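DM from R.C. (forwarded with permission)

"hey, sorry to bug you on a friday — could you get me a structure for this? deadline for the figure draft is monday and I only need the backbone to look sensible"
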Amino acid sequence: MSFWEYANPVKFLKLSGNLLPYCSTLAAIMILTGLGWGFFFTPDDYKQGATVKILYVHVPSAFVAINAWFMMLIASIVWLVRRHHVSALAAKAAAPIGIAMTVVGLVTGALWGQPMWGTWWEWDPKLTSFLILFLFYLGYIALWAAVEDPDTAADLTSVLCIVGSVFAALSRYATVFWNQGLHQDASLSIDKEEHVADVFYYPLIVVMAGFVLLFITLVLLNTRSEIMMRRASAIMARGKI
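My reply, with the result:
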């Protein structure tokens, strides 16, 4: 069985319909478990106090916001190379979820930053890159809405997605490229000496897994909706001929 078989809308609808109950249930369990564990059963940080627990929302939302763009990038490249409509629609479906996660990341980052840094915002390389990524999300969604022909819209948004991937990468790795800036290094790392203390690390992993599953669930739902809307538009177009 080839992976590309699921570029067929009928097979994609069948597969996604089978996956959705499992993904949504696991997402709910892991998010509720991780948040409950993190907020109620972990201690306050010795420097940040209870404020540190914002990380259980900020880190997963920022992680999904950045990686959603990379998922859109892969889907966009597949569209440009193989012209599979499901991949273009999947990229389109991921954008509203990505921008919502970006907004959550920006808001929780400001709430976390104000007591820690004494300011709601700083033109730090990582923060600035993340804000620009938000603007690319806005542009991407607006471009889909502005172009009437679906294939042309898919082509243009795919190119925009490739350009915007630069800022998605900078949002993730800015602290590696620039040493200056207020934002700390990544909260998660393969190196145990660099990531947060284990007492915060393990519930954070659970929440992040839940957020990833939530993203997959919403992308599947949105892609299914896009396919059905495309079918409905095609039927209506035939009826007018």
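R.C.: lifesaver. The CA atoms of residues 105 and 172 lie 13 Å apart.
me: no worries. The helical segments are 9-40, 55-82, 85-117, 125-146, 150-177, 198-240.
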